[in-house]
Design a protein that fits this description.
Layout (H helix, E strand, L loop, with lengths): L1 H9 L1 H68 L1 H8 L5 H19 L8 E6 L4 E3 L9 H5 L2 H8 L5 E5 L9 E9 L5 E10 H4 L11 E6 L5 E4 L10 H13 L4 E5 L2 E10 L4 E7 L1 H8 L2 H43 L11 H41 L3 H16 L3 H19 L5 E3 H19 L3 E7 L7 E3 L4 H10 L7 E10 L2 E8 L11 H6 L11 H12 L4 E7 L3 E9 L4
Keywords: ATP-binding, Cell membrane, Kinase, Membrane, Nucleotide-binding, Phosphoprotein, Transferase, Transmembrane, Transmembrane helix, Two-component regulatory system
GO molecular function: ATP binding; phosphorelay sensor kinase activity
Main location: membrane
């Protein structure tokens, strides 16, 4: 086990690269295989669905042809004077009865010859319950049962229409069949007989049975959701409102096909409404069974495995050859780090390895020259950082603020003292962080408000501060402590003669620049003191941060260039306006 671990450690680079490549090859192969199978399956389903749509049209045409022949036969019966006369006459003896049956059968034979298909049955019943049955074997109907059946009530309710219905009851001897019924009546609305055309479910199935197969099912669904015919015999007679809803919604959307989850299985559904029979023709395709019969998934998977195995083997051999020299180079570097830092590497192996060794040796030579310089630079940097940290906060500001808080507590102004302490803590935290970092305008406003709150707590509200900041600037970034020094100057130098006044802080975006303006109505300055040289050389004592106008102006130009910086406009006795121009920066 230890030997195996040492082998892995010795070939760590090779193992990592090989594993990445192997996993990548396998992942890509799996994705392509899955995508190919899925695309092939979807393409076949689309093609199969288009074909089945055409088949559905053919089935519909066959059913419509059947209903058309029924309509045609009904018209002939309705207009046949012989049948009309025979059904209204009374037969007084057996001879009259025989003649009656003879002529009725002769007329019906002629009309029945036009009914398509021949499997359909044609029956006429008189008001005396005499039955004339063209194919008795198809429907062994009893005149008395038929006359008393609710079917007659539906026909009499619509005497001018052919009424279609699915029946599987005592009147059909339990045989499921489609029955088309028509009342035979005179112009006076007197009904002198009834005409019936019947087609058993088994004969009805012949319309579509040749188009079905494993996973390809056809169903005829009534408006009540009952399955009246299907190649799946166990489903005949069952009621499925869900299937009916799918069929109706399919008809509303006028789509080619839909994927549905019904009967605890996924199907492709096609549907067409047949108004002549008032039924829905539904085609349910089991996509898994259909796809399995067409797409050989196992063969595709075996081919993919073979390709992956070959690719992984080739990657193994190539990577092994490439990483041997790199592994040797790694061992040299490892030994050098442990024993002798300035020992050069052997420039052997492949082209890449020799280049790396040569560059590494050159780096070693240069590194020795810069070590001392780097150490000196780091020492100076540490001293500069300590000095900056020490001068960020003026001790007098801390003493005066704490004294003011102490005075508030003695005066029992506890809420104001607590508010001042919170502002002081937030201000100290902000000042102790890296002075070079940038913060959002929103954060800078919080710091300014804390500073203003402390000063107003110490000196009162004689100087009011207003903030006008565009909302779209709150998320923009600016260097820390570029506005506060000017607020500080305004507080302690702008109101020496005037005892009250205001300071306005305006921040907005103008084209590609972030403009910050600090305006006060204080004592102002004479124009001679406002040129750039004066700005740069101005060294007034700052009571908080120790960062003056010069530092702010130079820091902005060092960070962003000569196009940005600080400009001051002032007029004695009217006030001062400070304009700080910064670039628009987002995170």
């Amino acid at each position: 086990m230890r030997k195996f671990i040492r082998i892995i450690q010795a070939n760590n680079l090779f193992m990592k690269i090989f594993l990445v490549m192997a996993i990548s090859i396998i992942a890509v192969s799996l994705s392509i295989t899955y995508s190919s199978i899925r695309m092939s399956s979807n393409l076949f389903i689309d093609t199969f669905s288009i074909t089945n749509s055409k088949i559905m049209n053919q089935i519909t045409e066959r059913i419509n042809s059947f209903t058309d022949s029924i309509v045609s036969a009904s018209l002939e019966v309705d207009t046949n004077g012989t049948i009309k006369q025979l059904l209204q006459e009374e037969q007084e003896n057996a001879i009259d009865k025989s003649i009656f049956y003879y002529h009725m059968t002769k007329e019906m034979d002629r009309i029945y010859a036009e009914v398509d298909p021949n499997d359909a049955n044609m029956i006429i019943m008189s008001n005396n319950q005499d039955i004339f049955n063209m194919r008795y074997v198809k429907w062994q109907v009893d005149g008395e049962k038929l006359a008393n059946h609710e079917m007659i009530d539906r026909v009499e309710a619509s005497p001018n229409d052919i009424v279609y219905q699915f029946e599987e009851s005592e009147v059909t001897n339990g045989v499921p069949m489609i029955i088309a019924s028509k009342a035979l009546k005179l112009r006076s609305d007197y009904i002198y007989g009834y005409l019936f055309f019947s087609l058993t479910e088994r004969d009805l199935k012949k319309f579509y049975e040749s188009y079905t197969g494993a996973g390809n099912n056809v169903m005829l669904v009534s408006p009540s959701g009952q399955i009246i015919s299907s190649n799946q015999e166990k489903m005949i007679g069952e009621s499925s409102p869900e299937l009916l809803d799918y069929a109706k919604s399919f008809d509303d959307k006028n789509s080619e096909y839909r994927r549905v989850d019904i009967f605890d299985q996924n199907y492709i559904l096609l549907s067409e409404y047949i108004p002549s029979l008032d039924i829905y023709l539904v085609n349910l395709i089991d996509q898994e069974i259909i796809a399995e019969n067409v797409i050989d998934t196992s063969e595709i998977v075996l081919i993919s495995i073979a390709i992956v195995s070959l690719a992984v083997l080739v990657a193994f051999l190539i990577l092994r050859k490439m990483t041997v020299s790199i592994s040797q180079l790694v061992h040299q570097i490892s030994d050098m780090a442990r024993y002798q830092f300035n020992k050069p590497l052997k420039e052997t192996g492949g082209y890449e390895t020799r280049k790396i060794a040569k560059a590494f040796n050159y780096m070693l030579n240069e590194l020795q020259d810069y070590v001392q310089i780097l150490m000196n630079t780091q020492e100076k940097q540490r001293k500069a950082e300590l000095e900056t940290l020490q001068h960020q906060i003026n001790p007098h500001f801390i003493y005066n603020t704490l004294a003011s808080i102490k005075f508030m507590i003695r005066q029992e102004k506890k809420e104001k003292a607590a508010e001042t302490i919170d502002s002081f803590i937030a201000l100290i935290q902000n000042s102790l962080s890296n002075i070079e970092e940038t913060i959002t305008v929103e954060q800078e406003l919080v710091n300014l408000k804390n500073y203003v709150q402390i000063n107003q707590a110490r000196y009162g509200d004689r100087i009011q501060v207003n903030y006008l900041v565009a909302p779209n600037c709150l998320h923009l970034y600016l260097p820390k402590l570029v506005i506060q020094p000017f607020i500080e100057n305004a507080f302690f130098h702008a109101f020496t003669k005037k005892k009250t006044g205001f300071i306005q802080i305006l921040i907005a975006q103008k084209e590609d620049s972030l403009i910050c303006e600090i305006i006060d109505n204080g004592d102002g300055m004479i124009p001679e003191r406002l040129d750039n040289k004066t700005i740069k050389s101005k060294q007034k004592r700052q009571l908080f941060s120790g960062i003056g106008v010069k530092n702010v102006h130079e820091r902005i130009q060092l960070l962003y260039g000569k196009d940005y910086g600080v400009e001051i406009e002032s007029e004695p006795a009217k006030g001062t306006k400070v304009n700080i121009k910064l670039p628009v920066r987002e995170l």
